[in-house]
Amino acid sequence: MIRAFIAAEIDQPVAGRILDAIDELRPKISHIRWTPQTNCHLTLKFLGAVEEPQIDAIGAALERELSLFPRCTIHAKGLGVFPDAKRPRILWVGIEGKSLAALAEKVEGALAPLGYEREKRIFMPHLTIGRWREFTRSTRQLRGVLEQWRDYEFGHSLVCEVKLFQSILTSEGARYRLLKTALLDHSAFA
Question: Whole-prediction pTM value?
Answer without folding.
Answer: 0.91
